[in-house]
């Protein structure tokens, strides 16, 4: 598993990412973008390659954000609008996708994660040894959990666990959740499709993320465990570490950068 690094006067990150078709599917409809400063996962749906096209289209809208500078939140909002327009304008009414993850942005008062979520893929934050799910699933079982009708553990086995209530495309127009949270040193983000979170509970995710300092080793272990558990769906995971943050982002220099772009395949290779 490869690990990538970005050094900048404002922020220093390490990351690794993986996608795999899983043990039961013939086609990988997951896609991810792990190219600084964008870290997103999209889980397509629709079958017959429609989901693959939808997830790819959704992420292609963020390619203009790749580069050496950090976008302002308004540029991320524009990319998000283009993402919806690309999928909805594809002409394939059955195609849809989830979208979750974070983009590093610069505002007038510091460096922030611009977090986005639509559907049931997930974004987690490990900070001070505690794993917290930042995103809220847009799903039938999540609504049942909030209504007190099922427990979180029972929801993992519920027959409606894969029914989502929001998506990009899929015959519906639904808004994403978006919010800002500060980028801080020693944070670790996990962005994943439900092919990972559906196989491994939060306790296992936390244990792996705490025990593997390297993002590459963490993603490799997460994939190994998901495959060992049966990997009934496509599996995708992006792990991002914040090694340093300088909130005074004035006078950035575009020199001495170790920058690798890594928008990885849609075809399911590990």
From TrEMBL:
Bilayer-crossing regions: none
CDD domains cross-referenced by the UniProt entry: PP2Cc
The PPM-type phosphatase domain, residue ranges: 14-242
Cross-referenced SUPFAM superfamilies: PP2C-like (SSF81606)
Organism domain of life: Bacteria
InterPro entries linked to this entry: PP2C, PPM-type-like_dom_sf, PPM-type_phosphatase-like_dom
Any one GO molecular-function label of the UniProt entry: protein serine/threonine phosphatase activity
PANTHER family the UniProt entry points to: PROTEIN PHOSPHATASE
Protein name: Protein phosphatase 2C domain-containing protein
Protein's organism: Candidatus Agrococcus pullicola
């Amino acid at each position: 598993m490869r690990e990538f690094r970005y050094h900048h006067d404002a922020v220093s990150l390490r990351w690794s990412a993986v996608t795999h078709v899983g043990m039961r599917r013939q086609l990988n409809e997951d896609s991810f973008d792990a190219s600084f400063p964008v870290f997103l996962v999209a889980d397509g749906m629709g079958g017959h390659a429609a989901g693959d096209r939808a997830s790819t289209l959704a992420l292609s809208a963020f390619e203009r954000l790749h580069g050496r500078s950090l976008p302002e939140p308004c540029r991320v909002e524009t990319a998000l609008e283009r993402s919806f327009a690309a999928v909805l304008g594809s002409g394939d009414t059955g195609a849809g996708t989830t979208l979750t993850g974070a983009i590093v942005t610069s505002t007038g008062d510091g460096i922030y994660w611009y977090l986005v979520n639509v559907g049931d893929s997930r974004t987690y934050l490990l900070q001070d040894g505690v794993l917290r799910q930042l995103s809220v699933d847009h799903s039938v079982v999540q609504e049942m959990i909030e209504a007190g009708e099922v427990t979180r553990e029972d929801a993992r086995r519920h027959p409606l666990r894969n029914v989502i209530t929001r998506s990009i495309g899929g015959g519906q127009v639904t808004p994403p959740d978006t919010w800002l949270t500060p980028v801080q040193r020693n944070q670790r983000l996990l962005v994943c499709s439900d092919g990972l979170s559906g196989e491994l509970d939060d306790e296992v995710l936390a244990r792996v993320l705490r025990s593997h300092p390297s993002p590459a080793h963490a993603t490799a272990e997460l994939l190994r465990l998901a495959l060992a558990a049966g990997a009934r769906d496509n599996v995708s995971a992006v792990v991002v570490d914040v090694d340093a943050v300088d909130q005074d982002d004035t006078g950035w220099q575009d020199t001495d950068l170790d920058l690798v772009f890594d928008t990885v395949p849609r075809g399911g290779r590990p």
